[in-house]
Amino acid sequence: QLYRDARECLTLLSQRLGSQKFFFGDSPASLDAFVFSRLAPLLKAKLPNGKLQQHLKSLQNLCNYCTSILSLYFPWDGGEPQSSTPRAASANGSEVEEDPHKRRNQLLSVLVGLVAMLGYAFLSGIISIQRGGTGPAGRQPITLEEEEEEE
């Protein structure tokens, strides 16, 4: 019953759309957004049971409707895969980044962040470096505890 109702709904949507670009003429309305949000996954997703998907694919005007909206509002996702996509399939079928400098850029980002944090710590006085041995004029460096005792 559920499949029959869904098939009937798709058929009615197809009849209502007819040969128009959108449901209410040449510009999209909220109904177009709603209908597209339901049709696009049904059209594009791999489903375990493809009965409803096959029926949708048989309604050419609804397929064109989805393709038109995808290419108009989602050009990077709507049509054929672009040749400028940064991913390529490797021999084992998984996707691999083509950017040969990705690892280097990540490492440089971490190093710059580390240097910035250490620089801030030194400049703000959170960290200080004292030289070993005697200080100027033969004096030993005074530690915080000795400084408190002198006061």
UniProtKB/TrEMBL annotation:
Pfam families: GST_C_6. Coiled coil: none annotated. The keyword Transmembrane helix applies. InterPro entries: Glutathione-S-Trfase_C_sf, Metaxin_GST, Mito_Protein_Transport_Metaxin. This is MTX1 protein. Residues 6-69 form the Metaxin glutathione S-transferase domain. Keywords: Membrane, Transmembrane, Transmembrane helix. Residues 81-93 have a biased composition (Polar residues). One of its GO terms (biological process) is mitochondrion organization. The chain crosses the membrane at residues 107-129. The keyword Transmembrane helix applies. It comes from the Eukaryota. Signal peptide: none annotated. The gene is Mtx1. It comes from Galbula dea. GO terms for cellular component: SAM complex. Residues 80-100, 132-151 are annotated as: Disordered.
